Amino acid sequence: MSGVEIDDLFHRIDGQGAALAALTADLVRIPTINPPGDAYEACAHFLGERLATRGFDVEYLRAEGALGDSDRYPRTNVVARIEGDGPGPCVHFNSHIDVVAPGEGWTIDPFAGLVRDGRVYGRGTCDMKGGLAASVIAVEAILESGVSFPGAIEISGTVDEESGGYAGVAWLAERGHFSRPRVDHVIIPEPLYKDAVCLGHRGVWWAEIEVRGRIAHGSMPFLGVSAIRGMAAFLEKVEHELYPQLAQRRTAMPVIPDAARQSTLNFNSIHGGLDEQDMREGFPSALVADRCRVVLDRRYLMEEDEADVRAELVEILDRLTAERDGFEYELRELWSVPPTLTEPDSPLVRALDRNIERVLDKPSRHVASPGTYDQKHVWRVGKLKDCVAYGPGILELAHQPDEYIAIDDMVASAKVMAAAALELLRGSE
């Protein structure tokens, strides 16, 4: 790629700050909240129609039969492809279009797409509609510059990443959309800093544990077995035995932030006894709870084995079975994904490294994500390992009130994406 070509490309993108902000704001105004999966179809068509006007062939692919798909909440993905001047590799930019619920604590409307002080505010700006906008602007700049390239460029907007990605990237990967020979390199513009290439992520193991007791009248708890007390005993052992062990385990993976370089365990929810009720409907009945469930989210390191992750919890549960009268439990595994780590000398990583340094005038960093992202499906199902996350935004702002993304960061990342894509398409080292 000549210096004249790259200068022209960067000049074009430098002039697109307002367009980047506007596109991000427009995407934010489509409230693709997951769950339940609102407005997926509207967002897919918004993106697809824009790309169609740029010459892309656009497909809308509903994951019929996938978990969560329904006529009310169709799991509609969009995949757009534009061919170059001849045979060659394909560079694919994949972004999820779903966002988490806004939650409490916002000082602005989370879906207004407010542009202020060089930032775009709103739910999904950082995670990851700003990254999607940056990839679109990057590719549009390539096309508008008139530079030639072999192969093809794809852009996708996929669903349900925030709940595992099984109706999105996983479903598409099962149908060949993330495998060779269709695709060679995948960039996922997750918000992991404009100067960093995210090579992979920690492993994840989700499970549900149910402790069983025996129901009785609340005035005579000695006639029953409280499942809530049994669960409390389990939680106490985890708190005092397992958590200190996890805190001592550190990984060689470059996980960010630093606190995530250890093993972690989060209890997602707890349910037991009577269902919650409105006190205006009457007082709860007096009973001893015979069921109590927790859902847990265990993030583990590449130095750990998934079987051991499960075993250390089972050991605590089995010990309680022996120690406590009437203690019974059931463990149900919900889903799991092993750790991933793309080779730092892969063609994609090298191209991003070179262009981060070119754009930002400093060496790139290699990091790993504390949580999984759709790379897991590209690796596991698509068997394509040249896949990383690179995009604008600050990871710690994801899922937070008053989420935002800096326009300058989107501009810088778009330049990196555009230059790296051209290098990969042309086979430049």
Q: What is the top-level CATH class of the largest domain?
A: Alpha Beta
Distance between the termini: 10 Å
Largest sheet composition: 6 strands, mixed
Q: What's the mean pLDDT score?
A: 96
Shape label: elongated
Coarse structural class: alpha/beta
CATH fold category name of the largest domain? Aminopeptidase
Strand content: 15-25%
Strand order of the largest sheet: 1-2-6-3-7-15
Low-confidence runs (pLDDT<50, min 5 residues)? none
Detailed description of the structure:
This protein has helices at residues 3-14, 17-28, 40-53, 125-145, 169-174, 227-247, 306-323, 347-360, 375-380, 407-426; strands spanning 57-62, 76-83, 90-96, 114-116, 119-121, 152-158, 185-188, 196-201, 203-212, 264-272, 291-300, 328-337, 340-341, 365-369, 387-389, 404-406. With 429 residues, the protein is of the alpha/beta class. The chain has two domains: 3-201 and 340-426, Aminopeptidase; 203-275 and 283-337, Alpha-Beta Plaits (2-Layer Sandwich). A six-stranded mixed beta sheet has the order 1-2-6-3-7-15. It has a four-stranded antiparallel beta sheet with strand order 10-11-9-12, with helices on one face. A hairpin with a 2-residue loop joins β4 and β5 (119-121). 46% of the residues are buried.
